[in-house]
Amino acid sequence: MREIKLQAADQSGEFSAFIWEPKGKTSAGAVVVIQEIFGVNDSLRETAQNLMDQGFIAIAPDLFWRLEPGVNISDKTDAEWQKAFDLMNRFDQDKGIEDLKTTLAAARDLPSCNGYAGTIGYCLGGRLAVMMATRSDADVNVSYYGVGLDGLLDEFDNIEAPLMLHIAEKDEFFPAEGRAKLIDGIEDNDWIDAFVYPDVQHAFARVGGVHYDARAATIANGRTTELLAEILE
């Protein structure tokens, strides 16, 4: 893993992005890995490492840099949850999307990249991955338990690349009514594949998380890998 600095599109400063590149591959597709509300933490870094092990370039930008650079917290204590929610509530999602677009362009420009790049995001990052599907030229986007996605339905006509949604049936941060509205709203969109995982909670695929579900995570991750390999290789 190595760290690079990227200039924000609004010229307000530089932010860090962390890159994992597969050894022995001179040309690979890139995946922008979008953080949860816990920052580019140890769990997200392990996810990026796993993507690298699968033969993809993984690049994870520090999206909270305007609030606090270098956030790395977990879901294990109340104090960490309080800090995470405070950061999320103060986070400017539109500026975050601009930082993700900058990261996407930087990923495509890496000497080891084959020119194809997509996104994968979790929780807050799952929402941002959907916003990247509607607002960027990413080649593919994958959202794990994105929150409030029904509020983005008006943008879904802008999608022109594959989008995969992994939805927890018992997501405590995305009420059933909103999930039903989302599923109904995307029914006729050929770009979108949505999967609902029964009897699991939010963050069922978080490495080392309190709600991790091995079976659901394995199934979801397999579907993700298959899609990324199809589009990015």
From TrEMBL:
SUPFAM superfamilies: alpha/beta-Hydrolases. One of its GO terms (molecular function) is hydrolase activity. Gene3D superfamilies: alpha/beta hydrolase (3.40.50.1820). Residues 15-231 form the Dienelactone hydrolase domain. This is Carboxymethylenebutenolidase.
